[in-house]
Design goal:
The chain is an alpha/beta fold. The chain has helices at 11-14, 36-45, 85-92, 103-114, 178-183; strands at residues 23-26, 50-53, 73-78, 97-100, 119-122, 136-139, 142-148, 152-163, 168-169, 185-196, 215-218. Strands 1, 2, 3, 4, 8, 9, 10 and 11 form an 8-stranded mixed β-sheet that branches. Strands 5-7-6 form a 3-stranded antiparallel β-sheet. Helix 2 links the parallel strand 1 (23-26) and strand 2. It is globular, with a radius of gyration of 18 Å. The protein starts with 10 loop residues before the first helix and ends in a 17-residue tail after the last strand. InterPro entries: 3-oxoacid_CoA-transf_A, CoA_trans_fam_I, NagB/RpiA_transferase-like.
């Protein structure tokens, strides 16, 4: 295989270079489309003082939630944090800094960061605590607040398929934040269900081009359901 081969076989190699006090951008929505093995590797490494940018912080005992157990996360930038009791406990105790960000704004922070755009204006959050202290501009008579984009030392992403060059395809709702996160890391690591050879992916179906990706590893996934809801037969 050529020098463009980005596949690694060990999680130690996948997350090599992660250090204390770095910023990690993580794809996923709830427990859907999360890089389970990469998160577990961060826990194994014991890296601390992390700033983590992700839609949420998993749940108690799974997903990003396992990084709270040894207080590896210093700051969390998220849009939803309602499913994690340990998160709440650390927040109220002053052990965890939290920057709540509207969901669309968070997605755009990642996308803009990956595109090299340092900041953007949005109407979302104006007139609320989200907009406190932020620059305000008026466009067509409507107020907008200035939001800074975000980039990370690492981006950890979960994809359905990738080839050895790092071209990625996501499956259904696992697209969520993963495509934006993939562009915003200085080092982007993708954990996938299947690795294929170059040329096997239809070019028009690729969601993240390999130019954004530094490492690819094949993982196994539990794909836990965050909240299972069923109905009685016939209803």
């Amino acid at each position: 295989m050529s020098g463009f081969d980005k596949v690694v076989t060990r999680y130690e190699d996948a997350m090599a270079g992660l250090r204390d006090d770095m910023t990690v951008i993580a794809g996923g929505f709830g427990l859907c489309g999360i890089p389970e093995g990469l998160i577990a590797q961060i826990k194994t490494m014991g890296t601390k003082g992390l700033t983590v940018v992700s839609n949420n912080c998993g749940v108690d005992g799974f997903g990003l939630g396992i990084l709270l157990e040894d207080k590896q996360i210093k700051k969390m930038m998220s849009s939803y944090v309602g499913e994690n009791a340990l998160f709440e406990k650390q927040l109220l105790a002053g052990e965890l800094e939290v920057e709540l960000t509207p969901q669309g704004t968070l997605a755009e922070k990642m996308r803009a960061g990956g595109a090299g755009i340092p900041a953007f204006f949005t109407a979302t959050g104006y007139g609320t605590p989200v907009g406190d202290g932020k620059d305000v501009r008026y466009f067509d008579g409507r107020p907008y607040i200035l939001e800074e984009s975000v980039t990370g030392d690492f981006a950890i992403v979960k994809a359905w398929k990738a080839d050895r060059y790092g071209n990625c395809v996501y499956r259904h709702t696992a697209q969520n934040f993963n495509p934006m996160a993939a562009t915003a890391g200085k080092i982007t690591v993708v954990e996938v269900e299947e690795i294929v050879e170059p040329g096997e992916l239809e070019p028009s179906q690729i969601h993240t081009p390999g130019i954004y990706v530094d490492r690819v590893i094949k993982g196994t996934f539990e794909k836990r359901i965050e909240r299972k809801v069923t109905s009685e037969e016939g209803q």
